[in-house]
Design a protein that fits this description.
With about 450 residues, this protein is of the alpha+beta class. It is built from 13 helices and 23 strands. The longest helix has 21 residues. The structure holds 5'-O-(N-(L-cysteinyl)-sulfamoyl)adenosine (5CA).
């Protein structure tokens, strides 16, 4: 993509309304613009990141056997009256009346709707287990939307829903999502800690939050240091996952709402106690028959009797992750994207557009990289070099490639690793090879 043809409204100054670094950088890097409190438009650069995150989430969900669907944002109130949550949800739910005076709501989550789809279409235990997910916008009328996309009112969530014949099978579905989550966050360059959590309005008795460490996080985490050193599991879902999960859950790890100081001190030696702030990027729940019983989502078991299906739900904050990744990956000059979610892999800077040799070398590099399957943002604008450099640092692409008239005469490109700041000069051929690999990160 040529920057002269792109839409990247970057800002030099820090916007006054942004309190935390990710919000400031998302506004400055031209990724989002606020339309109303907690509601954002995604501009091209932000949208690319959102889509890259969505692609990783989908790939890991699919590997774990979940199947993608797409449910609407608007839901009939009737369904929520069946589960009993219509009144419980209170002011956080945005309620809408259509022209026929029918009550609708903008979905804050989808347990009811997916339960309806399931009960209308599945009759027998033979069709189980199933896990259906979608990636869709949600609305929660948060009392205090803040920190940009991290606590929005409208936000993008991946939510998956598992259906099993009994509790033992449902626990296996939960384990699969647990593993898929560890893998998903790792691929985004994040270390996520699974912590035992409160179930809140979703309900149930088994729940984990996945928290990434960041000083500005809204959650507080208390855990044993060894939880942080567990290996990320392979995507092999045919084996018994209990030992994999136990490796994590054998240690104390809880978020503030669920923390118990006495148990923490009893179970964790002083030298191993970690207390930190973090961002909740995912939350998984097992809640058995909480929705299937009142909503009559029954299946016929092997003995011919009808039983309510056992369910779990599994959320990932896709739009929150964009802010969360920036909180974890930035420096004084701007964002430092991990390779897996970078909006472009390479930022190519032409120091003298209009100079025939410089233009020709840039074109060769641009075409070669694109042919290698890389996403390149080519700054071909007629701008000061300093402005181009600081803009490229701000938007944080993993590699920068700089070509000026002197380099062009020698057939050379200067490569900079955004994370380490390390610079090297290479021939066109060597730079094509180098830039096609993920750079070493700090
Ligand atoms: N039905 C369950 C799981 S599908 C559910 O709704 N869980 S949740 O309430 O914990 O939300 C799932 C994830 O969405 C959270 O872990 C968080 O990452 C994200 N999320 C929740 N509220 C917001 C918000 N206001 N802004 C941005 N992301 C949010």
């Amino acid at each position: 993509m040529r920057l002269s043809d792109y839409f990247l409204p970057t800002l030099k100054e820090n916007p006054a309304e942004a309190q935390i670094v990710s919000h400031r950088l998302m506004l400055r890097a031209g990724m989002v613009r606020q339309s109303a409190a907690g509601i954002y438009s995604w501009l091209p650069l932000g949208l690319r990141v959102l889509e890259k995150i969505g692609a990783i989430v989908r790939q890991e969900q699919n590997r774990a056997g979940a199947i993608e669907v797409l449910m609407p944002t608007l839901q009939p109130a009737e369904l929520w009256r069946e589960s009993g949550r219509y009144d419980d949800y209170g002011k956080e739910m945005l309620r809408i009346t259509d022209r026929h005076d029918r009550d609708l709501l903008y979905g804050p989550t989808n347990e009811e709707l997916i339960t309806q789809i399931f009960r209308d279409n599945v009759r027998s235990y033979k069709e189980l287990p199933r896990n259906l997910y979608h990636v869709q916008w949600k609305f929660r009328d948060e009392i205090r939307p803040r920190f940009g996309v991290m606590r929005g009112r409208e936000f993008l969530m991946k939510d998956a829903y598992s259906f099993d014949i009994d509790e033992a099978s449902a626990r296996q579905a939960y384990q699969k999502m647990f593993v898929a989550y560890l893998r998903t966050f790792k691929r985004m360059g994040l270390q996520a800690i699974p912590v035992a959590a409160d179930t809140g309005p979703i309900g149930g008795d088994l729940s984990h939050e996945f928290i990434i460490l960041a000083e500005t996080g809204e959650s507080e985490v208390f855990c044993h240091e060894d939880v942080l050193n567990q290996p990320v599991p392979e995507a092999d879902y045919s084996r018994d996952l209990t030992p994999v999960i136990d490796a994590y859950t054998q240690y104390y790890a809880r978020s503030d709402e669920f923390h118990d100081g006495a148990i923490f001190e009893e179970q964790v030696p002083e030298a191993k106690r970690v207390t930190a702030r973090g961002i909740e990027v995912g939350h998984i729940f097992y809640f058995g028959e909480k929705y299937s019983a009142p909503m009559k989502a029954l299946v016929t078991g092997p003995d011919g009797k009808d039983v309510p299906v056992h369910m779990g739900s599994y959320g990932i904050g896709v739009s929150r992750l964009v802010g969360g990744i920036i909180e974890a990956c930035h420096d004084d000059d701007g964002i430092v994207w991990p390779w897996g979610v970078a909006p472009f892999h390479v930022g190519l800077i032409n120091l003298k557009p209009g100079d025939a040799a410089t233009d020709a070398l840039c074109d060769k590099l641009y075409n070669g990289l694109s042919q290698n399957g890389l996403d390149v943002l080519y700054d071909d604008r007629d701008e000061r070099a300093g402005a181009k450099f600081s803009n490229m640092d701000l938007i944080g692409l993993p590699w920068q490639a700089v070509v000026g008239p002197r380099g062009a005469a020698a057939g050379e490109v200067e490569i900079k690793n955004r994370a380490t700041g390390e610079k090297i000069t290479l021939s066109l051929e060597d730079s094509l090879q180098k830039l096609s690999q993920a750079p070493i990160q700090k």
